[in-house]
Each structure stands twice: as structure tokens, then as C-alpha cells.
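Lecture 7 notes: from sequence to structure.

We start with a single chain of 223 residues. Read the sequence below before looking at the structure.
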Amino acid sequence: MEFANEPIFQWMSQFAYQPGTVYAALIGMMMLSAVGFPLPEEVTLISVGILAFMGAHPQHFPPPFEGAPVVSVHTASAIAFTAVVLSDFVIYLIGRIFGRKLLYHPRVHKFFPEHLMKRVEEWTHKYGAYACGIFRFTPGLRFPGHLACGMLRYPAWKFLLIDGIAALISVPTQIYLLAHYGEPILTKLRQFKLVVFAIIGLLLVYFLIKKLRDRWKLQKASQ
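Now the structure, written as C-alpha cells:
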């Protein structure tokens, strides 16, 4: 397998038949990725999906002993989705409680270049709470973006709804596809992501046009 050279997969594959360890590592990696650590979320999800594929095909990947526990695709998907949404919401709450002073604290700010911070502010002001859906698909902006959503006090239910939908599209999907088709699906998965990004882009354009139209109507009515 070409993907077998990935360090994260190499480490996790040691525990292919210790599902509890894999689930615990999955939670930890998802949380660390959410707060900006250099642990690619996609690589972790793909690794878990391939481990589930291996467990479902013992004829190709013989277990160390008969009846060895394997990674369950359903359990892994549920754990990954829950860990991602809860991690994002914790970041949102931190931003809501501590506000702008945390977002621009020297220890936080030094990890995010000025142009990234500027983009975060532009998107949050332009798209409102819908920006959190963009940040979910933009690893470099996810942490400061979710902080900004909390800082601007967008309704918690709206943040959870939009972030949850975005996570539902991207997180369990990858694990299920890899668990069913194995590594060959990676090319199709990347094509699927391009389609998702295109759909999200069109939705954002729609909401922006709708927002501008409503503002124009309001201005016209006040004249």
C-alpha cells in the first residue's frame, strides 16, 4: 500500500487489533488537530478507515489470532465525528469567553500569519455564522476561525448545526469509504472533496447575494 509510508498510519497500524487504543488515539489526534497542532486530520481519518478495511478483510490481512478484535467502521466514524464537533465547540466557547484578547494574544498570534488573521476576520464578517462551515474545510484557518466565531458571539446552536453538517460531510464519509473500498478509493475521495468544495462555494455565493439583496431592500425601504 502506498499510504503505508505515512508516519501516522505506520504508528496506528501497530494497534490494528487493539481497537480501544485506536479509538483513544483517534480522539486525541482529532482534538490536537482542531487546536492547530500539525496532525493532518485527513491522514488520521484515512488511517483509521484503512485499519477498519483490514479488519473487515481477514483473508487479505490475517489477524494475529483467531477472533482478534478489529476496528469497527461504525464505532470509529461515530467517535471521530463526536470528537471533531466537540473539539470545534470547545474552541468556539474559548473564543466566546475570552474574546478578542485571546485571538490576538502573542502566543496564539505568532502561529498564524497576519494575512491568515485578516482572512478570518473578512470571512466571519462577510458570511456570519456560515463561515464556520468554511473553516471546517480549511485546516490552516480552523482554530482561529472557530475562535473568531465564538468571539463574535454567533448563536451556539447555529455554530453547532453548521459545523456539525460540515463535519458530517467530511469526517464519517472518509472512514466509511476507506473501510469499504480500501486505499484505491483515495483518488475518488479527492475528487469527491473537490465537488463538495464547489457546492459549498456556490452556497456561499448564494448567501452573499441574498444578504446584499436584503440590505439593498432595507436601504430602499428606509429612503
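The radius of gyration is 20 Å. Keep this in mind for problem set 3.
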